Amino acid sequence: MAGEAEHGGSGFNIHPMDQFKVTPLFGGDSVHWYTPTNATLWMLLTVLAITLVMVVGARGRALIPSRAQSAAEVIYGFTRKMVEDVAGKEGMKYFPYILTVFLFILFANLLALLPASFAPTSHIAVTGVLALAVFVTVTAIGFVKHGAGFLKLFWVTSAPTVALRIVLAVIELISYFVRPLSHSVRLGGNMMAGHAVLKVFAGFAGALGLGAIFPIVAIVAVYGLELMVACIQAYVFAILTCVYLNDALHPGH
Amino acid sequence: MEGNIGEMGQFIGAGLACIGMGGAGIGVGHVAGNFLSGALRNPAAAGEQTATLFIGIAFAEALGIFSFLVALLLMFAV
Fold first, then answer.
1. What is the maximal distance between C-alpha atoms in chain A?
2. Considering CB atoms only, which of A189, A193, A239 is closest to B54?
3. CB contact under 8 A, A232 and B54
4. Chain A environment of B51 (Cβ under 8 Å)
5. Please, what are the averages of pLDDT over each run of 10 residues along chain A (253 residues)?
6. Triad A46, A79, A152: Cα angle to 5°
7. What phi, psi does A7 have (nearest 5°)?
8. Which of A178, A185, A190, A228 to mutate to test the interface with B (most CBs of B within 10 A)?
9. Which pLDDT score is estimated for A253?
10. Which positions 104-123 of A are in contact with B (Cβ < 8 Å)?
11. What is the ipTM of this complex?
């Protein structure tokens, strides 16, 4: 694959997948679990940015909020309403977790749009851990709250016959265990595809040199689309967490 | 002509897998279009249903993402 990027064009060649390489920050080639890499750096920057907006920005608690405070208030209120609407009053107990996940993904996605940055959420390893954490937590909540009654989630009582219920139970069971996969790959795939498209157009612009007006216009348009996708995917991840949580809290159909 | 037939199969398979993403595109468009037609009939009720819209879009999109995943696996993992 990597060999194809070397053909044709002037010296400015970019392979669209090169931006996703995890490299150690302080030289060296080997990556161990304790090695600080560019992924570590950008996740750290994500956490710092969240702290800056949510803790430092909202510290004033002014009656007439500053810009940072009103941004923090809008994000908080938006997420609160989302959890309450989808997961109900009982779901509010888990609101801090959902807000944390939402903020992490939103800020990681947005920071990844800075030039020369790294997108942690484009890696299945990162989104997979987030989705698995949600899956395990939600399943545990379901069994702790309802015991074996949680299995009612798979027994669709609104179906008319028992034979149909057995078929539906198999389908529901499969769809339940596919959840962490689709949950993680949706976010990772969307981010990765978007960044790869940006780099492909950047490669066109580099190859064309001075006549690169069309690729640059395309990059601006795709960048706007990516800005939207970054927000929507964070929202979708959070709202699906709420849906799964709602299933665990109210397993009956 | 270079390369072997296995690699050719990989590339053709990845390209074929991407057809599935077209299906997901149809699905997402169907969800959004039906939401819009419903929302234009009763705009007052539309605001509360945006969450449902996004959940529907996410579920329709998941299957396209699976085919994307298959394409990626064929290109980089097999």
1. 69
2. A239
3. yes
4. 82, 85-86, 239
5. 42 72 82 85 94 87 85 93 90 94 95 90 93 95 91 86 91 91 90 88 82 87 92 93 92 72
6. 110
7. -85, 150
8. A185
9. 59
10. none
11. 0.76
B4-63 pLDDT per residue, tens? 888 888 999 999 999 999 999 999 999 999 999 999 999 998 888 888 898 888 888 888
- CA separation for the pair B5, B14 (Å, rounded): 14
In sequence order, which residues have a C-beta less than 8 Å from that of residue A159 and are 6 or more positions away? A165, A168
Which candidate in B31, B49, B57, B61 is best for mutational testing of the A interface (most A CBs within 10 A)? B61
Length of chain A in terms of residues written? 253
Query: A43 to chain B nearest CA, in Å?
Result: 24
The reported pTM is 0.86
Q: Which of A1, A182, A236 comes nearest B54 by C-beta? A: A236
The CA distances from residue B65 to A4, A183, A186, A187, in Å, are 25, 10, 6, 9
Choose among A215, A218, A207, A210: nearest CA to A5. A207
Distance of CA A89 to the CA centre of its chain: 25
**Chain A, chain B: beta-carbon pairs less than 8 Å apart:** 36
Give the CA distances from residue A16 to residues A38, A82, A162, A166, in Å, rounded to whole numbers and listed in that order: 17, 36, 52, 47
